[in-house]
């Protein structure tokens, strides 16, 4: 499949810096980024991926809507630029810490219950 470097060129550094997707072609990065994006952004990304596949064929390339592709790329770029990497990392850490604290509280409750049953009998 022939790929046009122009399609998605603006998104490549954003996918690397904002989502940490530094390896692979645009197709691979878009596939890995899809679960992290909202539905509308996934649709726009799928449009760009389809267009990149059509660029290699001259007859199919004539069917591409350049304005739509440009709008899709701009919308995704705006969304990626709005992502705060530090906030994402801190929220991830807080989520891990909250899960750990819940598990420790559950373990303490189970141990207290087992201790109570042993003392009672």
Describe this structure in words.
The structure is a single chain. This protein has 121 residues and is mostly helical. The protein has two domains: 1-83, no CATH class; 84-121. The chain has helices at 11-19, 26-33, 39-54, 58-61, 66-82, 85-120. The longest helix has 36 residues, at 85-120. The radius of gyration is 23 Å and the shape is elongated. The chain starts with 10 loop residues before the first helix and ends with a helix. The mean pLDDT is 91. Keywords: Membrane, Transmembrane, Transmembrane helix. The chain crosses the membrane at residues 94-118.
How is the secondary structure organized here?
Blueprint: H1 11-19, H2 26-33, H3 39-54, H4 58-61, H5 66-82, H6 85-120
Short synopsis of the structure:
The chain has 121 residues and is mainly alpha-helical. Helices cover 74% and strands 0% of the residues. The protein folds into two domains: 83 residues, no CATH class; 38 residues.
User: How many structural units, i.e. domains?
Assistant: 2
Largest sheet: none
Average residue-wise pLDDT: 91
Radius of gyration: 23 Å
**Sheet/helix structural class:** mainly alpha
Number of helices: 6
What order do the SSEs take from the amino end to the carboxyl end, as H and E? HHHHHH
Number of strands: 0
Helix content: over 70%
- Tell me the fraction of residues in β-strands, as a range: under 5%
Outline type? elongated
Ends apart, CA distance between termini: 73 Å
Question: pLDDT below 50 for ≥5 consecutive residues: which ranges?
Answer: none
